[in-house]
Design brief:
InterPro entries: N_methyl_site, Pilin-like. Helix content is 36%, strand content 8%. By secondary structure, it is mainly α. A hairpin with an 8-residue loop joins strand 1 and strand 2.
Length: 158
C-alpha cells in the first residue's frame, strides 16, 4: 500500500453497506410497532373524548339544558352535534354549547374520502349491545376497523 492512498476499497464499502442494511432491516419491525402503538393511543384518546362528550350531552339533556322530546333518551341525533354545538335552552340569548372542537377521525379506518364522523360505527340507545348499525340517536361509538390491536383484541371492541 502506498502512503498516498485515499478513500475506501470496494471491499470496505461492501462490508459497510452490508452492516448498514442489516441494522436497517432489524429496525423496521420496531418502527412498525411504534407506528401501530401511536395509532392505538390515538384511538384510545378519540374513543374517550367522544364517549365523554356523549355522556356530557346526555347530562345536559337530563338537566333540561338541551331540547329533547318526551320519547327521546337525551342522546344526540348525530355525532356532529357534539362539535357543531347545541342551543342551551335555559340561556336567555340562546347561547351555544360545544362539547368537542372537532370529531376525531378513527385512526384505523381505511376509508378514504369519508368525513371524520363517517369513520366511526354508531350505536343507538335502543340498539342491542353488539349492534352498531346506527339508529335514531348516538349512544356509543366504536372503530370501523376489522384489525386487531397489539393486545389481541379487535379495535372494534375497544
Amino acid at each position: 500500500m502506498s502512503q498516498h492512498q485515499k478513500g475506501f476499497t470496494l471491499i470496505e464499502m461492501m462490508v459497510t453497506l452490508t452492516i448498514m442494511a442489516t441494522l436497517a432491516a432489524a429496525a423496521l419491525p420496531a418502527v412498525g410497532k411504534y407506528t401501530t402503538r401511536q395509532k392505538e393511543q390515538e384511538l384510545t384518546l378519540a374513543l374517550q373524548q367522544i364517549r365523554d362528550a356523549l355522556d356530557a350531552y346526555h347530562k345536559l339533556a337530563l338537566a333540561g339544558r338541551v331540547a329533547k322530546t318526551a320519547d327521546e333518551l337525551g342522546y344526540p341525533k348525530e355525532l356532529s352535534a357534539l362539535s357543531k354545538g347545541v342551543v342551551d335552552i335555559t340561556s336567555a340569548n340562546k347561547k351555544m354549547i360545544y362539547l368537542l372542537r372537532h370529531i376525531p377521525r378513527d385512526p384505523f379506518c381505511d376509508c378514504g374520502g369519508r368525513s371524520n364522523e363517517e369513520t366511526w360505527k354508531l350505536r343507538s340507545s335502543t340498539s342491542q349491545p353488539d349492534n352498531f348499525d346506527g339508529g335514531r340517536d348516538v349512544y356509543d361509538i366504536r372503530s370501523s376497523s376489522t384489525l386487531s390491536g397489539s393486545n389481541g383484541i379487535p379495535y372494534a371492541q375497544w
